[in-house]
TrEMBL record:
Class in the EC hierarchy, top level: hydrolase
Example GO biological process: phosphorelay signal transduction system
Protein name: Phosphoserine phosphatase RsbP
Domain of life: Bacteria
Any GO molecular function: phosphatase activity
Organism field: Paracoccus haematequi
EC number, UniProt record: 3.1.3.3
Key words, A-Z: Hydrolase, Phosphoprotein
4-aspartylphosphate found at: D52
Gene: rsbP
Domain Response regulatory positions: 3-123
A family per Pfam: SpoIIE
Gene3D superfamilies in alphabetical order: 3.40.50.2300, PPM-type phosphatase domain (3.60.40.10)
Record keyword Hydrolase present: yes
Length: 414
């Protein structure tokens, strides 16, 4: 039942309205002044107010407007519908009433049928407001639940990031004159890039760089599985299983075909990945690599010459009979080779231009005096600056450096 407050200095007018409204099943309250009306509004919130425009004998001739302003300024749980009663309506009065917060106007004398029709219209507005308020409450509740769920997901992803970073157990390694340095920088909480290395024997080391399509949970799960297959444990590492070749570690090309068959036969997924796997003899500097859709490795000779290597090859997990590119190169003292993911080569500036192979070459030349992790961090900073901080893809890299032997500097004789 809607509660209506009748505010009028005329007791006869209040009585007539009260009879009509009670017959129409409204709960009725009466007030003879603005002050009484405001006290009733504070004690029991009316749904609708029917108020005279002016109250003769009281301060001010437009107390109905004052009541309307005070009613709108007060705190309420629900919206209240306000109708002003006027003796004669003109455009200026209506404008002033609307500015004060009135919803409707009735010209006196008021016919019962018109009064009830106006209040019925007010009820429709109140019902719409109540429905909106209920919907907003449900939305707020749903948003609170979504925020709680998102917070839980963020916590899980943060922990997953720590676990994924743990897949790269060593960020650097030294094998004779060869120094290895790794960079792994996901674009989000977790990513689809993986880099690492493992010893094959006393003279050789396996080096890998993978980039799974996408950089969400699916990509992260696949990189976790691949890390098991490329771990340092001989019984799990498919490159070290003697059963594959009988006596020696799997060749780079054979490893790429093994992974391709595994993706097509064992995994029901549309995910694929690119890869470079290298078998490095650190005593001779010979590097045998397979390129499977990964960006070109870049060799920088000791004299500063920069040489992109490979023809590309096909990604892993797409074709039944893929063609992979095999690369055989001899590194010499002072040389270094950079393997990076497309999160670096395909980094885009605000104008939409890719960093590309030319950009990677420029970074190598600019940072020729830097080595190891210092170089990789400088490269990562350059890529972020190129993107203006809007990096969309994971960033990973392997830097292989053939260190020149230290020179002996003779001490001057005194």
């Amino acid at each position: 039942m809607r509660r209506v407050l009748i505010v009028s200095a005329s007791s006869a007018q209040r009585r007539i309205f009260a009879i009509q409204l009670r017959r129409a099943r409204y709960e009725v309250m009466e007030a003879a002044s603005v002050a009484d009306a405001l006290r009733l509004c504070q004690r029991s919130e009316p749904d609708m107010i029917l108020s005279d425009w002016s109250f003769p004998g009281q301060d001010g001739l437009e107390s109905g407007l004052d009541l309307c302003r005070a009613f709108r300024a007060g705190e309420r749980r629900n919206y209240g519908y306000f109708v002003l009663l006027t003796s004669a309506q003109d455009h200026q009065d209506i404008a002033r009433g609307l500015e004060a917060g009135a919803d409707d106007f009735l010209a006196k004398p008021v016919a019962q049928q018109e009064l009830l029709a106006r209040l019925a219209a007010g009820e429709r507005i109140l019902r719409v407001e109540e429905d909106l308020r209920a919907s907003n409450a449900q939305l707020r509740s749903a948003l609170d639940k979504l925020r709680d769920t998102q917070a839980a997901i963020d916590r899980d992803l943060t922990e997953a990031r720590k676990l994924q970073q743990g897949l790269v157990k060593q960020r650097s390694g030294r094998f004779g004159q060869i120094q290895l340095s790794l960079l792994l920088r996901p674009a989000g909480h977790i990513g689809g890039d993986l880099v690492g290395f493992f010893p094959i024997g006393p003279e050789r080391v396996g080096i890998y760089a993978l980039d799974v399509s996408g950089h969400g949970v699916t990509a992260a799960l696949l990189t976790a599985q691949l890390s098991v297959h490329l771990s340092g444990s001989a019984d799990q590492n498919v490159a070290l299983r003697a059963a594959q070749t009988g006596t020696d570690a799997v060749s780079p090309a054979a490893l790429a075909h093994f992974f391709n068959n595994m993706m097509l036969e064992e995994m029901a997924t549309d995910t694929y990945y690119t890869m470079i796997y290298a078998d490095l003899d650190h005593t001779t500097g010979r590097l045998r690599m397979v390129q499977a859709g990964h960006p070109h490795p870049v060799l920088q000779r000791a004299d500063g010459t920069v040489l992109p290597l490979g023809n590309g090859g096909m990604p892993i997990g797409v074709f039944e009979n893929p063609i992979f590119d095999e690369i055989d190169v001899i590194m010499k003292p002072g040389d270094r080779l950079l393997i990076c993911s497309d999160g670096i080569t395909e980094a885009t500036n605000p104008a939409g231009r890719l960093l590309g192979d030319d950009g990677v070459e420029a970074i190598l030349r600019t940072n020729a005096f830097l080595g190891g992790h210092v170089f990789l961090e400088s490269m990562a900073w350059s890529v972020s600056e190129y993107c203006r901080g809007e990096r969309q893809d994971d960033m990973s890299a392997v830097l292989i450096e053939y260190l020149a032997p230290a020179e002996t500097v003779p001490m001057p004789l005194r």
